[in-house]
Amino acid sequence: MHGVLFIGHAKLPMGSAARDISEILAFSCIVDPKYGVILDVSDTLLTDSAKLLLRDVLIGQNLLEGLDVAVEELRMRYHGAALPAVEACIKDIQGQWRRWVEQGERSHNAP
């Protein structure tokens, strides 16, 4: 798998199960540098079911098109205290992708 790694961070809210382990939620996404498609996702959420849901929603999403649809789907499917932090991580990754593309890195690193 050839891809570029982007990591998003957000502070977890009080009352979320994952906050018992860490105050920070982190997502990592491996993205196809040529097409902007998310190839893999991992996160520091506590439960396997939350991890599976995030993978289901995010893998295959195209960062060139934005992640608004993915965020809306998560709002409909994820009903946990960490949702605001999840959304913030996704927006952080989207912002990093945009900056990377604007800096011209995408054209230099595409296989």
Structural class: alpha+beta
Shape: globular
Nearest-angstrom radius of gyration?
Answer: 14 Å
Intertermini distance? 11 Å
Biggest sheet, spatial arrangement of strands: 1-2-3
- Record field, number of beta strands: 3
Which architecture does the CATH hierarchy give at level 2?
2-Layer Sandwich
Major sheet details: 3 strands, antiparallel
Strand content: 15-25%
CATH class: Alpha Beta
Estimate the mean pLDDT confidence. Answer: 87
Flag low-confidence runs: none
**Helix fraction by DSSP (H/I, runs of at least 4):** 40-55%
Number of helices: 4
Descriptive account of the structure:
It is a single chain. This protein is of the alpha+beta class and 111 residues long. The protein has one domain (4-109): Enolase-like, domain 1, CATH 3.30.390. Helix content is 41%, strand content 20%. The chain contains 4 helices and 3 strands, in the order E-E-E-H-H-H-H. Strands 1-2-3 form a 3-stranded antiparallel β-sheet. Helix 1 (48-58) runs antiparallel to helix 2. The protein is globular, with a radius of gyration of 14 Å. The mean pLDDT is 87.
Briefly summarize what is shown.
This protein has 111 residues and is an alpha+beta fold. It has helices at residues 48-58, 68-77, 83-102, 105-109, and strands at 4-11, 24-31, 38-43.
Compile the SSE list and pairings.
Blueprint: E1 4-11, E2 24-31, E3 38-43, H1 48-58, H2 68-77, H3 83-102, H4 105-109
Antiparallel strand pairs: 1-2, 2-3
Helix pairs in contact: 1-2
What distinguishing features does this structure have?
111 residues; alpha+beta; Enolase-like, domain 1; 3-stranded antiparallel β-sheet; 4 helices; 41% helix; 20% strand; globular
